[in-house]
Amino acid sequence: MGNAAAWNSTVWQASAVIGPIFGGLLYGWVQAANTYMFSTILLGCAFVSFSLIKSKSVINPNKHDTVLENIKEGLQFVFSNQIILGAMALDLFAVLFGGAVALMPIFAKDVFHCGPQVLGVLRAAPSVGSVITAIVLTRHPISHNSGKIFMLAAAGFGLCIIGFGLSTNLYLSLALLAISGALDGISVWVRSTIFQLATPNEMKGRVAAVNSMFIGSSNEIGEFESGTAAKLMGLVPSVVFGGVMTLLVVLVTSVKAPKLRNLHIHELYKEPEPAS
Questions:
Q1: With contact defined as beta carbons under 8 Å apart, do 177 and 126 qualify?
Q2: For the chain, what is the mean pLDDT?
Q3: What is the model's pTM?
Q4: Helix crossing, 67-80 with 204-233: angle to 10°?
Q5: 86, 159, 213, 234: which could form a disulfide with 260 (CB 3.0–4.6 Å)?
Q6: How many CB atoms sit inside 10 A of residue 137's CB?
Q7: Phi, psi of 141 (to 5 degrees)
Q8: What residues contact residue 57 under an 8 Å CB cut-off, 6+ apart?
Q9: Which residue, 93, 268, 273, is CA-closest to 192?
Q10: How far apart are CA 60 and CA 25, in angstroms?
């Protein structure tokens, strides 16, 4: 399961690096309309591939819950499980406060005094770090002290964001962004593996849906928070503030979720108990 989570992260992060580069090259070669047409063709291929996946799920014909009841059941399970809730909350608030992605164009222009080429490199640096981490984790998964490593990775991510906010050297900033991506890759791997192993089969879809709602919304809200904080506090103080808040979230989570802090993932490699 851990290996699958690592490969999933590898493919995702690699696409995050390669996609914009390939899209930019296509735009220069065949212009916008044909670029979007090619993208549509690729999406069509993805849809066909997805539809060919054979389902192995067992549907209970006597269970006829509404959508709202399913969402409620998923939320109740998440909030009753300290490990899953702690992992989800830590990632949610780390993304919410520690995301400096929305401010990259300002850093490229006002701090490093460079053009869009440097902006592209800045945007790609975290994904490069994540890809490297994901590849390493496919060969060397984390099984012991997983909770502590998860929290240390989140704390390191916050420190990298603080360092990036204070840095005026482009190469140092790129290194910090790559390290932050590598540490975030560890967090993603641990969180993804926890969700799969600590969730009963009949609850996996609902827990995945709840996680998607929380994490998906935190990206957009985090960008809004970054822009608002930059307007009110200034560019550098807002990024430093976000990194400090990430460290504070890690501290609170370590105190409030001791089961997550003391987790060893190898202990989860057994059949999860059914949801009560």
A1: yes
A2: 82
A3: 0.78
A4: 70
A5: 86
A6: 23
A7: -65, 155
A8: none
A9: 268
A10: 49
Q: Is residue 42 a part of any domain in this protein?
A: yes
Q: Which amino acid is at 199?
A: T
Of the spans 7-21, 175-189, 200-214, 258-272, which averages the highest pLDDT? 175-189
Q: Are 143 and 163 in contact (CB under 8 A)?
A: no
Look at residue 189 and tell me if it is in a domain.
yes
What does the pLDDT average to over 208-217?
77
- Mean pLDDT, rounded, for 128-150: 85
Angle at 12 between CA 7 and CA 15, to 5 degrees: 125
Q: What is the signed CA dihedral for 26, 31, 35, 38, rounded to 10 degrees?
A: -90
Q: What's the confidence (pLDDT) of residue 276?
A: 44
H/E stretch holding 38 reads: helix 2-51
Residues in CB range of 209: below 8 A, 6 or more apart: 71, 74
Q: At what angle do helices 82-98 and 146-166 cross, to 10 degrees?
A: 10
- The answer to whether residue 275 is domain-embedded is no
Indicate the SS3 state at residue 53.
coil
Distances from the Cα of 73 to the Cα of 170, 184, 243, 245, angstroms? 48, 29, 34, 31
Q: Where are the alpha helices (H) located in the chain, listed in sequence order?
A: 2-51, 67-80, 82-98, 104-106, 116-139, 146-166, 170-197, 204-233, 235-256, 258-261
Dist CA 187 CA 198 (whole Å): 16
Domain tally for the chain?
A: 1
Enumerate residues 6+ apart whose C-beta is below 8 A from 130: 9, 13, 16, 181, 182, 184, 185, 188
Q: Which range of residues forms the domain containing residue 69?
A: 2-268
CATH number of the domain to which 164 belongs: 1.20.1250.20
- Is residue 276, in this structure, part of any structural domain at all? no
